[in-house]
Specification:
single chain, about 375 residues, alpha+beta, five-stranded antiparallel β-sheet
């Protein structure tokens, strides 16, 4: 068997048939992953018609192919917003891929984890079975929370085919800040000061000099911090006055060349260099120490790179200009450093590339996947090629 065959899928029945045939032939099936040398690559991009839009009850039901950008435009026109799609950060992801990645949410500092906005789902498993979990209201959940479990990042349990999403009204007022600081200590001081305020920013994004120069396509000699306040006009204006004072105290200056928040949807697949999102989580007071350790390990491997991320929630992402066969050892070192500093590794790297250490739920997830996909046909791990 040679080559990759791309198959468009537009409904659950088609997907079930593909999986059942693939199980019989032990043929790999790929979705939201770079395919291997042979097998089936699924295309759900045209599976994108909204099933229901309940404005009164702040709910929308969508298939996997609709993009977060398209969803945001649709709900914004009605004065609503889907919080995880409320910025350009992940605009290029489809809803299905957003769930597959574990429901990342740039605005989790203020609004909570992205999985809180996923009320229910339907999944097609690699054995061809279909399962519905959750529902149209939060109180439908009793016993094990399978809605969130099946949305475990890169766990490759099944393909989500129907999603019930929670919406919120648009804020009356927004104010965005784009500032720079010369040291990571000043960055941490600013984040700590923002944490002490009664209401946090909707989101906060940070990049060091190396990662920021690539992300924003402009050379930078300082740490970059972009964040947004939202709410009613009085709340935002009062908060902004306090933030202006904090910026002075933390030696933060307005960016010389303001820029928009980048869309990182395709960084790992398309951008030059090696990018790893959502692997490391470190308590923000220890970000400086983690950055120092990461810089030392990069120097030891003679690699150029940097760090960036949400910071306020401790999610730290990695950029390396060029890697080699030592990448698994490199990632394992950083995973150990994160754990030493009170953080954790998600296990995403192990799931996607088959290297590094496991996440804390790895044993449970692997056992569950083995029961449903004993031939391991759905999204087998790939190798790092950058």
């Amino acid at each position: 068997m040679n080559g990759i065959k791309t198959m468009a899928v537009a409904n659950s029945e088609q997907l079930q048939n593909i999986f059942r045939q693939a199980q019989q032939e032990k043929n790999p099936v790929y979705l939201y992953r770079k395919p291997g040398d042979y097998g089936i690559s699924l295309d759900v991009s045209n599976w994108n018609e909204v099933e229901a839009f309940d404005i009164d009850n702040l709910m929308i039901i969508v298939p996997p192919g609709i993009l977060l950008r398209e969803l945001n435009e649709l709900v914004t026109a009605k004065g609503l917003r889907f919080i995880p799609a409320d910025s350009p950060y992940l605009a290029g992801l489809s809803v299905g891929e957003w769930v597959y990645r574990g429901c990342p949410n740039l605005s989790s500092w203020k609004y909570g984890a992205g999985k809180h906005f996923l009320l229910g789902s339907s999944y097609v498993f690699p054995n061809g079975d279909v399962t519905d979990v959750g529902g149209k209201c939060i109180k439908n959940v009793s016993g094990y929370d399978l809605t969130r479990f099946l949305a475990g990042a890169y766990a490759d349990f099944a393909v989500g085919v129907r999603f019930v999403l929670k919406l919120m009204p648009q804020p009356v007022c927004r104010r965005c800040y784009d500032v720079t600081t010369s040291s990571l200590e000043d960055v941490n001081q600013l984040v700590s000061a923002l944490h002490s305020q009664p209401v946090p920013p909707a989101w906060l994004y940070w990049a060091d000099t190396a990662a920021g120069s690539k992300l924003f396509a402009q050379q930078q000699a300082a740490h970059r911090i972009i964040f947004e306040l939202d709410g009613n006009a009085a709340e935002v204006n009062d908060y902004a006055a306090a933030v202006d004072k904090l910026l002075m105290a933390c030696k933060a200056e307005k960016a010389a060349l303001p820029t928009a928040l980048p869309d990182v949807s395709r960084l790992e697949e398309q951008a030059a260099g090696f990018w790893l999102l959502d692997e490391f989580k470190v308590p923000y007071p220890n970000i400086s120490k983690f950055a120092e350790k990461a810089t030392a390990v990069l120097a030891e491997f003679h690699w150029n790179g940097g760090l960036f991320g949400q910071l306020a929630n401790g999610k730290i992402h990695l950029y390396v200009e060029k890697t080699d066969s030592r990448i698994n050892s490199f990632i394992a070192r950083l995973q150990t450093e994160a754990a030493t500093l009170g953080g954790a590794a998600s296990g995403k790297y192990e799931r996607v590339y088959g290297g590094g250490s496991n996440g804390i739920l790895a044993a449970i997830e692997k056992n569950f996947k083995q029961q449903l996909d004993p031939a391991q046909i759905f999204n087998p791990a790939a190798e790092v090629t950058k």
